[in-house]
Amino acid sequence: MSVICWDGKSLSVDSRVTDDTGRMATRTKGFVLQDGSLFAGIGTILLVERMRGAVQGLRQSVDLTGMNQEDIDSTLCVWIKPEAFYLYYPFGDLYSIGKPEDVQEAFGTGAKYAVGAMLMGADSYRAVEIAIECCATCGPPIKTFVLGQGDPIEIA
Predict the structure, then answer these.
(1) Residue 48 sits in a domain of what CATH number?
(2) What total number of domains does the chain contain?
(3) pTM above the 0.70 mark?
């Protein structure tokens, strides 16, 4: 339940998440990492946060303790570095799908709306805004990140 969207230049995320009790909540799921790369995820926020810790070197691997198979199967993160756009899965699988500037993609329950918006010329922010309008499981506020520019822009 959520949407994350990359338009080749910026990453925008909504703030609707599944918390550790399985309930809908509002939390940040997009981050600027210490090296300036961008990281965001869909799925259970606890698992997204554990995956972020693993890529930052805080853990050897992703701690799956207490996670059920449905949580694991529904979680996916994107890790955007200057040299590559990566898909990152809970078991530690990391796949490069191209250079960031060559990728336009969205993930989550609102992805089809976001992709459609981008096909019509929307940037990542507007695409997430449209996904929120069309998908009940997506919600504000929206945060937008630009690779190499530090703190996100937050628009309610």
Answers:
(1) 3.60.20.10
(2) 1
(3) yes
